[in-house]
Specification:
The protein has 294 residues and is mostly beta strands. The protein is built from no helices and 30 strands. Strand 21 and strand 22 form a beta hairpin. It starts with a strand and ends in a 7-residue tail after the last strand.
Length: 294
Amino acid sequence: RLMVFNSNNNQVSNTGGFGTRLSAGVDVNGNPQVYFTDGDNRLWRYNQGVFTSTGGFAKALAAGQAEVFFLDGDNRIWIYRDNQGFTNTGGFAKQFSLGRDSTGQDELYFTDGDNRLWRWRQGVFSDTGGFALTLTAGRQGEVAFSDGLGQLWLFRDQGGFTFVGNSVKQISAGLDEAGNDVFFFFNSSNQLWRMQNGVATNTGGFGLELAAGRGGLVLFTDGNHVAHLFQDGAGFTHTGFVGTKPSASLNAVGTPQAYFLNGVPQVDTAFELMVANPFGADDLDALARVLAAF
């Protein structure tokens, strides 16, 4: 069942819908909206209390600004734009990550069947010349990715490639206090690192899952599945709760915060939804299995 938590009034509401995958974005007015798939992989939009069936089907999706990028059953890349309909880009992807260019427009980085790294921006495909196994796009025209040896690279729309060099297992893109891209990642030893402008710094933490948000904030779980926060300039906050599936907000205003499910994967079957910020963590009195923070 699709539920919505509103941080403005701390209320959880039942939308009445059901979903298997979801991705949060914004509509043309900057209001939060969610694209999701139902049990038949049909693609839906939920905005301001209204459900819209797009008529499409998706196996992967990423919501952007009044649009959603998704893959069909043949791995073809499509775009559905709010109230405008579908665009077949003509491209095919193994994986993708949606970010923004330096002007704030949506752009998609993806790999093809040969792991070649491509960019789609404003209707134009560009072959970067690189190859990637994992990738995470930022919001200032750049993407962090790992190569065939598991080493970290940064590609900028305007500046090309920067070899960072650290081994990498997971990457998450966030924003620092000034709104600039910052990437957090785990290396091969599960150490938590921070990378910005091609320079990596060891935070001193270790983890299993992570999600970066605003204000230089990242939520991560350690080897015992306990959730922690790290924030630029503030260091670590121990929440005291076990957790999984972290998700952090990039669009909301106010105190940077992140969400996670209270429980241990492969052990628990019911998960309480939690919210965390540098002041601690709170139970939102709602059960969840999948989440996407706005």
